[in-house]
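EI: anyone free to look at a 387-residue chain?
SC: sure, send it
EI:
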Amino acid sequence: MKKMMYTLLLAGLLPLATFAQDSTQFIKASWTELLAKAKKEQKPIFVDTYFEGCHACKEMEVKVFPGKEVRAYMEQNFINTGFDVFKEDFGFDLCSRYLLHGFPTYLIISPEGKLVNVGIGYNDADRFLNFLKETTARYKRGQFYYGYATNVKKEGPAWYQGLFNKKREYPGDSVLVSFLAKQKDKTAELTVKAMALVKELPADYKDYYMKNRVKYQEMYGPDMNSSIIARVIGADMKELAGVAYEPAAFEAFLKKHEAAYKPGGDWDSVKAEMAFRYIYKQQKNLKAYLEWSIANKDMNSNNVRMASFYGGAELAKDPEVKALYLQWAKIAITEKASLELLNGAAYAFADTDKATAKQYLTWAVAKAEMMNLTDMVTRLNAKMATL
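SC: here you go
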């Protein structure tokens, strides 16, 4: 994995050693040395957190980081490093400070130790480059997720530290609820981490969080807040447990909760998540879920991908359901969609809408070329020639 790409840093020497392979200019050093280099060059530190055996981590290593545009941009704008979150002690420290739970996660940290931005998971090169440019803009504006402490180390009570030992001990809900009941500041860092871990927020916390979501987002960023809002959504959706799907009743449920969620600025994504959880996952009704997504103009292409992933067998055997899926895909899929989705959608449209299939393949070729995936470019162009 990535550790094989690292060269050892000669103690105390600068410039720092770089990875041997033709990838982004990652360096290996102590955190003190990285901060010093960042301060000297007036660049934020890009930290790739990963672990050996992580497929998405490997995909970034092989397909995205070595790309000419990505590599050049990262070299110019960041001090680049990476840590294995399971094998390196500092990887555990990063997990503890930022409550990391999905990998790869990208942390961009200023020379003063402030968190500039957070990115999660595999992204094609074009989307990843956009993320890097947005991060640079945040840094230049002096915009940070200011809820976090500026030091990187394990700290907090035993229940929290247990998350980041070799056993990964998750605290029980009773422990978290008891801890929250004693806190005076509902926006303090450790309090917010407990909010992200508890299965269901206590009523006073839920009420405060929903009224102050924008502040929480400004303080702690999207990843922490997605964990908290998932708890809120789950609690609200208990109203629908065991209730048969009726479109009018579900719309009434959404209308009831809209006022609480809408000030957060993400109501469209919240209601789409509710629809997926309830109509498809709970009711197992892919047709109704597709109809809802079309009617509500859900433009999240990742939701299109998830529908295909979970409902692939039904799409393959039911022409009516497939037709609905293609109708939604044509609304939601743009050149910003993932290479995986563009490729799959092009094949799905090949027999019924050659013009759309060709457009998807054109976008896919551009993405594959950016990542130097020559074999894929050849296959995509060959497919396009048959349309």
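EI: Confidence is low (pLDDT under 50) at residues 1-22.
SC: 👍
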